[in-house]
Amino acid sequence: MNITKENFGELNGDTVTAYRLINDHGMQVSCIDYGCTITEINVPDQTGNIENVVLGFDTVEEYKNHSPFFGCIVGRVAGRIGQAEFDLDGKNYKLLKNDGDNHLHGGLHGFDKVIWDATVEETADEVKLIFTHVSPDGDEGYPGNVNLTVTYSLNNNNTFQISYEATTDQKTLLNLTNHSYFNLSGNLKTDILDHELTLKSDQFVELSDALIPTGHLLDVEATAFDFRLGRKIKDGVTSEHPQNKLVGGGYDHPLLLSANHQEEISLIDFSNGRKLVIETDEPAVVLYTSNMMGDNFNIRGVQARKYLGVCLETQHHPDAINHPEFPTIVLAPGEVYQTKTSYSFSVLKGE
Q1: Do the annotations mark residue 342 as ligand-binding?
Q2: Predicted pLDDT at 349
Q3: Which residues hold beta-D-galactose (predicted)?
Q4: Radius of gyration (Cα) for the chain, nearest Å?
């Protein structure tokens, strides 16, 4: 087990540092302190060929100019907040509108645009990278000083875990996630339409035309949202379901998890045998199949395009503050925000 550290570049005169977490079996997770951004996850396929399975860039400038939240921590609130405003204890808070009339992923300068402080811990069985940041009262319109810790850890079982912890001195909102785009083909050899996704989920959240939750929960039964027995991602692209068509063909929806820490999410590329299992204590996962990705930039020599990656964003429901029927995302003084998600990589056994 090992962690390496090197200069990744500069942003507004500040140094951006890259870290590489390495286990004893060749798995490597690379990230930078700008946005806690995961830049690479290198894992083997069935033949032992080690390749990168997430979308990312090699320069700070590319992240600044082109990144659709590749690999970063988003917050204070992941997803959209309708009309970019909310009421909390009788006070109205107005946020920046950075997605039409709505607020998306914490605003224009959310946690993905911050250079976090980082410390390293190494043991024989695990390496950890501990990111910390203080979000000041009024940051992007949110109340309260919030102390945040995000820990990235890698063990010798090829499991990468993200742990989140936070406290506040005023009532505020918090709903964090990691926004990695996965592509198990390795080094973006193909898109993700033939990846098979399995989800322990019986319902998903209906979206309005503005992609804001309506508050209605829809059953997955007999729809392209039924991943309980596994299905190809391309089923959502060809689906005539109004919700698939609404988001441009594919998915950009919160699916409610019916189990936690029970292999509730799995993604497989049968062409090379790579398998990813995600376990979390969050109530939902936002499935986004990069339907809206533009083609005006390159990703390590590959032209960006729709369906090049799939995001599996474990979190609470988007716009929860405006839907009292959803689990709360309010954090109060004296409470500790804690959640974790693990990503375990393996290969399918041969015949």
Answers
A1: no
A2: 85
A3: 179-181, 252
A4: 19
